[in-house]
Specification:
Three copies of one chain form a homotrimer.
Chain A: H1 2-27, H2 32-53, H3 60-63, H4 65-87, H5 91-113, H6 118-139, H7 145-148, H8 152-168, H9 173-194
Chain lengths: 223, 223, 223
């Protein structure tokens, strides 16, 4: 039961992140193969890193061809129907938010299944969520949206904490998965649409000249 | 027999990629130690990643000092005879193409030896080929040539598919290695010299202003 | 005994590198959570990579919560007292130099404890030292200071060689740790303050226009 849930979430997150990777590739005018590579990297980097860290080798994305198939499907979808996806405002941003929610809960569940202690399981869930987006942005030579965007890693961590707490209280994993995932997406929604953000430390004068837009618009840099 | 072939290809690929890493370091005016670090990183990142993913720990490049020796040799060669190498047009690009061919076939062979299934073995071969170049370019803060260049990952994949198919048909690994390697290099040659390329999706108007050179010249950005 | 020393050095290096990561995050105006993520990444990337390569899975930074606690402490320190830290000239640079010294010796000791051969243990020590700083700089889309800065990887390697040689001669690890660490910091001090540097190969004319500052000032780019 929990294994089916895990697989569905993992593949769902892979698909959505692969979409975001492919959309970033199309925006940078990469060719069809570059689109596929970036789709696979964005969709699987988080999960592969998690699996390496918990010693689950070879990682699911290598041992099991369905991750590859899902990534290629996402890449082809974006390549051939990009105008459709682009009609969504900020497509990378929204698919990224959905993928973040899927991966944060799935990564935490998988770490718990492997008997990692709860605090670290939550962190690994967060890492699964943010890993794919980080690699995607590093590859197109941008500062990862993970670090720039408002409530990003925090949203992933919130979802992971819900899952971990739920397990400690013996709540059904399906319930905690839904609550955690929705919480994560809701936090990102509020950040993107309504400018919710955490405080930023201001560097001393003379170093901040490069960035003088209002905080709530920082997200738009990656849209 | 297959093990000797594997080692020769692996060390050959390491040497050639290390040359490309060192040449990139010299172009960015790094000092002699930075040249060595980038030579080692470019020469070994692909193989180390492959070994981590198939669970061959510690990776060959760490357990066996010959990879280090070959990388240092390549770094010193470039450092002291850069003018010689620079007389080749686009030195990074050509050494990169040779290394790609070596690594794509060697990576696939090694994955097959470790009994990874054929589809994933081909992908791991591709990854071995493109990993070193990706890390090299990320370190000098450029979008990896892997993603920008024409027929790059595709050439690596073509070589990997030749090796995998050859094994399924019980052809001698030496034959498939030569055919695969030559095919990979030939595809890159046609891309660099004659502008062969795959179609790119065009992003909606208003986002593409930054890039308006003809497609076939994109490769030159990394030369 | 050696285990206590190892842990103290590892946590000390983590703290200091986490400070440097957090300071880089504040300079780029990231929010408090981004500061924490970059603090953790800079503080632990080198050690995690080393542990993956020597097969010590799950890595210490994942299995043991104290690395996380130390990273968060460093992140909070920087976030709330940045003006204090900024009064130091080039805070990232100096904390980076101290962390480099701690990690280079600790990484080498740990590799020796895991019975890696001496040459590779020295290299892994160097990698532990430079890994965190590399990831920190890649995440803020800069060419890693590791590659740009004078005597950087060399200083880490010098410390590692002292530790390895000391063990071969049966000198007390505490003595070699202190000598190696001080040597590493001293080399960086001379590089930063007095412009010591290794020779750089000059690329052929026409490619070097972008960089025409004197060599000894290259370090300041990351200050």
């Amino acid at each position: 039961m929990i294994h089916i849930l895990l697989t569905v979430l993992d593949l769902g997150g892979t698909f959505v992140f692969a979409i975001s990777g492919a959309a970033a590739a199309v925006k940078h005018r990469l060719d069809i193969f570059g689109v596929m590579v970036l789709a696979f990297a964005a969709g699987n980097a988080g999960g592969v890193t998690r699996d390496l860290l918990i010693g689950a080798v070879p990682p699911a994305a290598i041992a099991n061809w369905s991750y590859l198939a899902v990534s290629i499907l996402a890449g082809l979808t974006v390549f051939f129907w990009y105008p459709l996806i682009a009609r969504l405002n900020n497509p990378v941003l929204w698919f990224d938010a959905v993928g973040l929610a899927f991966f944060a809960v799935a990564g935490t569940q998988k770490a718990l299944v492997h008997e990692i202690n709860p605090v670290m399981a939550a962190l690994l869930g967060m890492l699964t969520g943010i890993g794919g987006g980080m690699l995607r942005d590093v590859f197109v030579a941008e500062i990862p949206v993970v670090l720039r965007a408002d409530l990003y890693a925090l949203a992933a961590l919130a979802a992971a904490v819900v899952v971990v707490t739920g397990q400690a209280l013996h709540v059904s994993p399906i319930a905690t998965t839904i609550v955690g995932g929705v919480l994560c997406f809701a936090l990102r929604y509020m950040a993107i649409r309504h400018g919710w953000h955490l405080p930023a430390a201001w560097p001393p004068r003379g170093q901040s000249g490069e960035l003088n837009k209002p905080d709530s618009r920082r997200d738009n840099r990656n849209s």
